[in-house]
Amino acid sequence: MELTPSRQMLRREFELESRCDRDFLVQSLAASLIASLGLLANSAAVVIGAMLVAPWILPLRTAAYAILRGRPRLLSQALLTLAVGVASTAVLSAAMGLLVGLPIYGSEVMARTAPNLLDLGIALVAGAVASYAKVNPRTVSALAGTAIAVALVPPVCTSGLLAASGQWALAGGAALLFVTNLLGILSGGLITLALCRPELSQGLRHRRLSLASLALTALLLIPLSGSFLNLIRQARKAAALHQVEQAIDASLRNETITLGQKADLVGLRIDWTQNPPLIRALVQVSQPDLPTAKQVAAVQQFINDRQPIRFRLVVQRSLVDVVGPESAPNPQTPALPARPVPPEPWPLEPPPPPPPMPENVPAP
Fold first, then answer.
1. Hey, how many other C-beta atoms are within 10 angstroms of the C-beta on 316?
2. What is the model's pTM?
3. Where are the domains of the chain?
4. Is the domain covering 236-319 a CATH 3.30.420.10 domain?
């Protein structure tokens, strides 16, 4: 029989998780410092460490429990604890951004400025796992993985750093990611607690706050869908452009004499921002006058005849000297003598029959 915590024990544990005590403040400040430093250093490993230290998911799942149980005081305490952590993190990260003053941030910061539907899906699953780990003690080890999967502290730190540098649009994108994770975890926790605890299932259908939380999460589909569709369009465009580049590169190497045989094609890059797109081909040649402008024009026409759009080709020549000593050819290898065929181990003809037995032999 599966062991589950009783109602009284579950209530006491949620009340403890909602408190804004010294442990919560120390862990929040430590997570904020680690995340801010990791974002400034553009280190994914350091940011992951901040996710493990952050305790914000505890008051957030307590808020889900308080909504289902209809306990506004516990809900207010949990949200106040979470607000203290968020506010202190935002102020601390903004102060670090002003102190360091980086003009450009790395990929770890920019990756948290454009949330989409995938982030909401991750947050929903993470909230469900976090709440399931609470009502099923045997799965408590899943809480660390949940903290890594969905991040609450890094988006707030990202927003603070970008706001300190005056990049308000990107800071708003990071804030949207935090709201997405927040409501996703809350909604996932509401649904999971209602499914796992029969005494909480009524609260999901009849509590106004639970319906409001789910409605707010549904409203996030509007901005997140646009970002998700834009992500798909960019991925498809990048794949199509990569295929075109591969086709042009293969045709130049295998089907043209100018760049395939008389010159060594080292690299090829296409500038898609120009109209028509500009192909920059880097070749190594041993003759400084090859390929000529006429040959390049012929290769450009060769490319345009095989592509749906027109391109402009520019060839950058790199002169190389091929040196090496002369060497006499190797003498022809003499033919090896024919290998003798060994005789057959058995005779090809059958042996003669044995002599007949003598007849009328007298008895002794």
1. 10
2. 0.71
3. 7-219, 236-319
4. no
